[in-house]
C-alpha cells in the first residue's frame, strides 16, 4: 500500500482504519466480472461511490456495459457501501 493511501485510511483516533472510499476492484467480491470493472476504470470510474453516483445512462454509454450489467454493478455497489447511490429527501428523513 502506498504512503498516500495509507495516510488517507488512518483515522485520527489511534490505529483504527477508516475507509473514506472503496476501490471499484472490490466489486469482484459481489460477483462483478473483472473485465467489466476494467471497462469502468477505462471510462474513469475508480470508486464504488463514484460508480453509484453516476446515472444509468452514463454507465450504459460505456462500451461493453449493457443495462443488465449496469444494474448488477449498481446493486453490488449498494451492497458494499449502503450510503452509495441516490436517496430522496423523504428517505433520508425516514432514516433519521
TrEMBL record:
One of its GO terms (molecular function) is DNA strand exchange activity. The keyword DNA-binding applies. The keyword DNA-binding applies. SUPFAM superfamilies: Rad51 N-terminal domain-like (SSF47794). This is DNA recombination and repair protein Rad51-like C-terminal domain-containing protein. GO terms for biological process: chromosome organization involved in meiotic cell cycle; DNA recombinase assembly; DNA strand invasion; mitotic recombination; reciprocal meiotic recombination. GO terms for cellular component: condensed nuclear chromosome. It comes from Chlamydomonas eustigma. It comes from the Eukaryota. Coiled coil: none annotated.
